[in-house]
Design a protein that fits this description.
By secondary structure, the protein is of the alpha/beta class. About 45% of the residues lie in helices and about 15% in strands.
């Protein structure tokens, strides 16, 4: 079943879910890369509602371009365009319109961790009475931002499915992955890069702060990863051994073993 006028309905629902009054009066300048993907069908309608000055690159669906798309290279190009045009915001929307790379007003390409923390900072400032959902492996800086604002955090498993299940529960107003996927349950309990862009523009406009200032105010986050290959039949034993060795320590047993240590 293919509903008629789906794009128009999507746009109408987005405008109804987000207060765009501040964004419309801010006259924000934005640079977007739509990655030759599905966002090219949706974004024109949404951008018309923002009253922003927008420079868009790769604004059409093109399968070969989408398959060869280099996210990092295109993010650097957007950063160059942000600096050259004096834009307040830049973004690369991935081909399936689920994930987002953000560039601040100084042309700095934000890491996924920086974007998550910046969005959290904006959410707790503009929506102080909400709860948020975050994967258990997220940096404790994220929990600190929320606790300082009195915003409760629901920790989820690492899988996108569980994160979206929690988002759909009606208990949280924002959920985020560590890979550039963000969820706004009041609109749609699933990753949505277009919704994230609109929410980001609305929050920046309402706080009247440049994104670079928010990023500069964030504590630095350093996360090191190491993968240890473990035979499937030994994984249960490894987990039990870890729990036994950590007896008495502060741990979180969601989707693994997380040790809370200063």
């Amino acid at each position: 079943d293919f509903p008629s006028r789906a794009i128009e309905q999507y746009t109408a629902d987005m405008v109804a879910a987000v207060d765009l009054s501040a964004a419309r009066s801010a006259n924000m300048k934005i640079v977007l890369d739509l990655s030759y993907g599905s966002a090219s069908f949706v974004m024109p309608n949404l951008l018309a509602k923002l009253d922003a000055d927008v420079l868009v690159v790769n604004p059409y669906a093109h399968t070969p371009g989408m398959m060869s798309f280099d996210r990092d290279a295109h993010a650097r190009r957007v950063a160059d365009l942000v600096r050259a045009s004096g834009a307040q915001l830049g973004a690369v929307v991935d081909a399936d319109c689920e994930h987002l790379v953000v560039v601040d007003d100084e042309g700095t390409v934000l890491t996924d961790d920086q974007t998550l923390l910046a969005l959290l900072r904006l959410v707790v400032e503009t929506r102080p009475d909400v709860a948020v959902a975050l994967p258990v492996a997220v940096s404790r800086r994220a929990e600190t931002i929320c606790s300082e604002a009195g915003v409760p955090v629901v920790l989820t498993k690492l899988s996108p499915v569980h994160l979206m299940e929690v988002a759909a529960s009606g208990e949280v107003a924002f959920a985020a992955s560590q890979g550039g996927g963000y969820v706004w349950p009041d609109f749609l309990p699933a990753y949505d890069a277009a919704a994230t862009l609109v929410e980001l523009v609305a929050m920046l406009s309402s706080t009247a702060q440049p994104l670079s200032k928010i990023v500069d105010g964030l504590a630095s986050v350093n996360i090191a990863h190491e993968t240890v290959m473990t035979p499937w039949e030994l994984k249960g034993m490894v987990m039990r051994t870890l729990v036994e060795q950590l007896d008495g320590q502060d741990v979180v047993l969601i989707d693994g073993v997380k040790i809370l240590a200063e």
